[in-house]
């Protein structure tokens, strides 16, 4: 746990150290990579997080999905769980859990057949993920094993090795501004 705390501290500092312009540039590059994946092309529905605080900006992926005629949903934290709301307009988002943008209204969806765009603090090339410590994604994915898992991250979030736990669910693909790492 101590090691994860250190990693979070290190990556949050790195995120802060980059300019808005850099974050936006790289986020666009990541969106371009994500939208060329077969997993994206095959998906009719996308579960995406709403970004916050120099995370990979997901707006570009969401806009592309809308343009491509896909449905999009974003999570809202309810107790220990994430509930996904269909997103048809960014105006549905308001500050929620820890100041993270969440849907304030809309239709709640239960999609099994979808591609998820996952956030994370740090990753390694074995596709292990360190999240924010709430376990929301692991709990959700355990209940929805069919959902395709694509994490987005900046290259500086890729570490040689990150600590893992048996309950961790790895993304199948991690997309950065430089590369796509596929689960072996």
From TrEMBL:
Substrate binds at residue 55. InterPro entries: FTHF_cligase, FTHF_cligase-like_sf, NagB/RpiA_transferase-like. Belongs to the 5-formyltetrahydrofolate cyclo-ligase family. It catalyses: (6S)-5-formyl-5,6,7,8-tetrahydrofolate + ATP = (6R)-5,10-methenyltetrahydrofolate + ADP + phosphate. Its cofactor is Mg(2+). Keywords: ATP-binding, Ligase, Magnesium, Metal-binding, Nucleotide-binding. ATP binds at residues 4-8, 129-137. Its EC number is 6.3.3.2. GO terms for molecular function: 5-formyltetrahydrofolate cyclo-ligase activity; ATP binding; metal ion binding. GO terms for biological process: folic acid-containing compound biosynthetic process; tetrahydrofolate interconversion. It comes from Blautia obeum A2-162. This is 5-formyltetrahydrofolate cyclo-ligase.
